[in-house]
Amino acid sequence: MIASTQIRRLFTVTLVVVLMLPHVAAGSKRELPHYVFVLPDGYVGWIQVIFSAPNAPKPEFRQNKIILRVDNSGVFKTSMTGTIFSGTHDEFFYSKVDSNGREILFPVPASYFCANYSLVDSCFDGNETRTDAFSVGRATLGRPSDGSTGNSWFLFVGPMSLRQKMATPVHIAPGEKYRIDVPEDDPKPGRIRDEK
Questions:
Q1: What are the extents of the domains in the chain?
Q2: 39-95, pLDDT tens digit by residue?
Q3: What is d(CA 23, CA 34) in angstroms, rounded to the nearest whole number?
C-alpha cells in the first residue's frame, strides 16, 4: 500500500511535469531558417542576390534568420552559398530611421512579393510564360558566364500589376519542361520607384 506522503509527492511531481510541458515544448520549437530581406523604405524593383561571391561578407544571422540588407542598387553579394530552406517562407521588410537614429522595420505589403517557398518566390506557376523570380548558375548580369564565381537569384518586389509588367520571359528548351537561362533577359536590379 502506498503511503499518503508518497501519494502527495507523486502528485506534486506529476503536477510540476504537467505545468512545465508547455514551456519545454515552446522552448524546443525553433523557427526554421529562412531569408529576411531588409529593403530601403518604399523600394520597388528587381533584386539580385549573388551567392558564393568571393571576398563578399557573410550576411547577418539572427535566430535562424539570414538577414539580406539590400540597398538602392538592388544587388546583395555574399560569400554564403545559396540554400533553399524547405517548408519556410522568406520575409520582407522596409527600413526607416526614426528621429533618434534608430532603425525601424515595417513589413513590405504582402501583395508586393510571393512567399511560396524559400528562395523560389515566384508569383507565377509553371505554366506561365513570364516569371518574377528565378535563379541562374552565374553571377554576371545580362551576359553568359564569364567565369566569375557565384550564382544569382533575381526577384521582383512591387505591386502585382507592375510585377506582371516587369516579369521576364521564360524560355523552355525544345522538348523539355525546364527553364533555360537566357542572359539577355536578365532584369536590371535597382529601385525603379518609391511606393509611399
A1: 1-30, 34-194
A2: 999 999 999 999 999 989 999 998 889 999 999 999 999 999 988 777 778 899 999
A3: 24
